[in-house]
Amino acid sequence: TPTFQGVMGGPVVVDANDGAGHPALIMASQRVLSNDGAAFNELPGQPASGLASDYVWTWYDMQSAGARNWVLVANPNDPGGAQIYYKIFIGGTQVAQGGPIAPGNNVTPTFPGTMNGPVEVKTYSDAGFTTSANSIASQRSIFGPSFEEVPGQGTLSSDYRWTWYDQAEGPGVTNWVLVANPNSAPVSYQIKIHGSVPPGGSGTLAPGARVIPTFPGKMGGPVEVTSTGGPVMASQRVLWNGYFNEVLGQ
């Protein structure tokens, strides 16, 4: 469980072998204590085989009081490898493009005053933005006392699940179920909590649109988001007595 005092940057790569030069399977994650130990976050490593050229998230927020939100894009290629270029979209509108990002380097832009979704990062091998190239991307957020990192989702689904939903614990708890449509055509969606669809738990999403419903008084699980007409992106965001957490659908 090493730490590297004084180091800040990315990407971070963990390689493993069996001592004879053959790749070896491992489990790897990063654990972060921030705000003088008041906030904790853990992020699993993403296997190299799972890297993509197109990542999405449900939401971006650098408008709420106390919120800071970075979109991180890194070039995972080894030194001497290819450089990459990127475009970033929020709510269907392109908000940034740039590059090149050299092998082993990154960009960490923010978009002050913006709150919208979905968020999409696309990466390319050329300055003309015509040929896709793999990258690694995540969002890092500071919200009040909390620190959170959410990996970009490269493979979308029409069926997501979580174990639990809770907006019954009192005024200090808010639980959103976010559903975003990154497709070029409308999709229909449905949210189930403990096997039933609550009021406001279904509808149609236009291309590039999203919904962020809450269900006051509800507590239970499992939670399921399904879609027809195309895959969607889904996550749950929770504020718990001032602390923030986001969990992607599985």
Helicity, as a percent range: under 10%
The count of β-strands is: 22
Structural class: mainly beta
> Main sheet: which strands, in order across?
3-10-6-7
One letter per element, helices H and strands E, the order comes to EEEEEEEEEEEEEEEEEEEEEE
* Low-confidence parts: none
> Mean pLDDT across all residues, rounded?
95
Taking the alpha carbons of the first and last residues, their distance comes to 27 Å
Largest sheet: 4 strands, antiparallel
What percent strand? over 45%
Radius of gyration: 19 Å
Q: Total helix count? A: 0
Which of globular, elongated, flat, extended, rod-shaped describes the shape?
globular
Which terms summarize this structure?
250 residues, mainly beta, four-stranded antiparallel beta sheet, 46% strand
How would you portray this structure in words?
It contains no helices and 22 strands. It has a 4-stranded antiparallel beta sheet, with no helix packed on it. With 250 residues, it is mostly beta strands. It starts with 28 loop residues before the first strand and ends with a strand. Strand 1 and strand 2 form a beta hairpin. The chain has strands at residues 29-34, 39-44, 54-57, 60-61, 67-74, 84-90, 93-101, 106-107, 115-116, 119-124, 136-143, 146-151, 159-162, 165-166, 173-180, 187-193, 202-205, 210-211, 219-220, 223-228, 233-240, 243-248.
